[in-house]
Specification:
Helix content is 41%, strand content 17%. By secondary structure, the protein is an alpha/beta fold. The chain folds into 3 domains: 3-276, 3-Layer(aba) Sandwich (Rossmann fold); 299-411, no CATH class; 424-470. The chain has a 5-stranded parallel beta sheet, sandwiched between helices. Helix 4 crosses helix 5 (224-235), helix 5 (224-235) crosses helix 6 and helix 13 (424-438) runs antiparallel to helix 14 (442-454). 40% of the residues are buried. The structure holds zinc ion. Zinc ion binds next to helix 6.
């Protein structure tokens, strides 16, 4: 029934979890050195749909998401400054203060977007002991080595290193974005533990245990890739069902997670690897230097519902590139308002109307679309099909049908619509207007229509009577 496109096999594979009924998921979370922009958020919206689809398919989900608050260097290949340290210096804050501030902002954003909370949200700094134990065990297996700036994983000791991302290791050096540390044995080797730079006191640093370090003990901090492997092992076990992340994680971060985890446990790290493509802004990659890293707060400032942003994301498939423009967002907002105006009929329709089986069939097709590798664009088409069946029945639509569609929009797509009822006073005004129309008292009828319009209630006259919707 469920199937996913699995990155390593490049194939659609039927989904079968390790333990029947429960699915373990790990999602690489944010590095909390700045606000998340729409590109970052789009991937969390994608994985929200994964969780919702599994839940609607009858599975319990046990999901871990990390928060990287230490160790992520400017280059994903362990070179350059620490992102947290760089930002802390800029904001004249400690790395700890910065991490707390941006973690809180991330959590608030998850709430605002109605993203399902993972069962565990784990911070890298809370798993230092686990990461050190991990290094110790890798050292015992003889796959690590120490150079001036840290302890590294020797990727030549993991024969399948290139296979996950189908890397061309021979030419990796030529295409490197940065000059690799000349002390590294192989260009693809990565840091498990970095030593604090000499003569520099870092906000976040720990003693390197004596049995791990050669020579005098030094302060240090974990490499970025290690936290995910250590948390997965601790919270979910040796092998998990699904690992998610951005496509940019494939060649370095996830390749390194696999190398260190599978060397340690001898077991596959994950059975399914799902990767989301990028969101562009105005056709270009999101980048601070280009000034196109739009934040959720800017969407809110324009009085656009954040649910419209979510709907905009779902309009494209997670494995395709999407393009954010303000015009596209406004179009998604209009689409959402149109949905809400139909759902609001649940307060107006004839309560004795019977269900239309076409609605349930359309919703079953929408769920099927999600189960086929999270095909959200097709799911939206089927939801709109269901809404059309309701709309064409006017006030004879069935309230159960409307509530069924609303439940799918909310639980399946995670879109929370404004669908509250209007006040008793407003209902009375609508009735008075109907009476005025019956008496052909157009002056009163127009006057009452204007009163409601001022209260942001729009009236539509149909053969069966008036239908109200909310003016946005
Ligand atoms: Zn990760």
């Amino acid at each position: 029934m469920l199937r996913f496109y699995n990155t390593p096999s490049h194939l659609y594979e039927p989904f079968a979890p390790i333990a029947s009924g429960t699915v373990s998921i790990y999602t690489c979370g944010p590095t909390v050195y700045d606000y998340l922009h729409v590109g970052n958020w789009s991937s969390y919206v994608r994985w929200d749909i994964l969780v919702r689809t599994l839940t609607l398919s009858g599975y319990n989900v046990n999901r871990v998401m990390n928060i990287t608050d230490v160790g992520h260097l400017v280059s994903d290949e362990d070179e350059g400054q620490d992102k947290m340290v760089k930002s802390a210096l800029k904001h004249k804050k400690t790395a700890w203060e910065l991490a707390r501030y941006y973690s809180d902002d991330f959590m608030a954003g998850m709430d605002k977007l109605h993203l399902v909370q993972p069962q565990h949200i784990t911070k890298a700094t809370d798993f230092i002991d686990e990461q050190l134990t991990f290094i110790r065990e890798l050292k015992d297996k003889g796959v690590t080595y120490q150079i001036d700036d840290g302890i590294y994983f020797d990727t030549a000791k993991f024969p399948n290193y290139a296979s996950f991302a189908r890397l061309d290791l021979e030419h990796l050096k030529d295409g490197a974005r940065i000059t690799p540390n000349p002390q590294k044995r192989n260009p693809s080797d990565f840091a498990l533990w970095k030593f604090s730079p000499k003569h520099e006191k870092r906000d976040m640093e720990w003693d390197t245990p004596k049995d791990i370090v050669e020579g005098t003990s030094k302060k240090g901090f974990p490499g970025w890739h290690l936290e995910c492997s250590a948390m997965i092992l601790k919270k979910l076990g040796k092998t998990i069902d699904i690992h998610t992340g951005g496509i940019d994680h494939i060649p370095v971060h996830h390749t390194n997670e696999i190398a260190q985890s599978e060397t340690l446990t001898g077991k596959p790290l994950a059975h399914y690897w799902l990767h989301n493509n990028f969101l562009l802004v105005n056709g270009t990659k999101v980048s601070k230097s280009l000034g196109n890293s739009i934040l959720l707060s800017e969407i809110e400032k324009k009085n656009i519902d954040l649910m419209a942003f979510k709907l905009f994301v779902l309009q494209s498939h997670y494995r395709t590139e999407s393009n954010f423009t303000w015009e596209n967002l406004v179009a998604a907002n209009n689409r959402l308002n149109n949905w809400a105006s139909i759902i609001e009929r649940k307060w107006q329709v004839n309560t004795t109307s019977t269900s239309d089986s076409k609605v349930s069939v359309a919703l079953a097709s929408a769920l099927d679309a999600l189960q086929q590798d999270l095909d959200t664009p097709r799911a939206l088409i089927h939801v709109e099909e269901a809404l059309r069946y309701i709309e064409t029945r006017g006030l004879e639509a069935s309230p159960e049908d409307i509530m069924e569609v609303e439940a799918f929009i909310q639980n399946g797509l995670g879109l929370y619509l404004h669908s509250s009822d209007i006040t008793a006073g407003q209902k009375l005004t609508i009735k008075e207007r109907a009476d005025a129309r019956k008496k052909s008292d157009w002056k009163t009828s127009d006057h009452l229509r204007d009163i409601l319009k001022n209260q942001k209630i729009l009236l539509k006259d149909t053969d069966e009577g008036q239908i109200w919707s909310r003016l946005q």
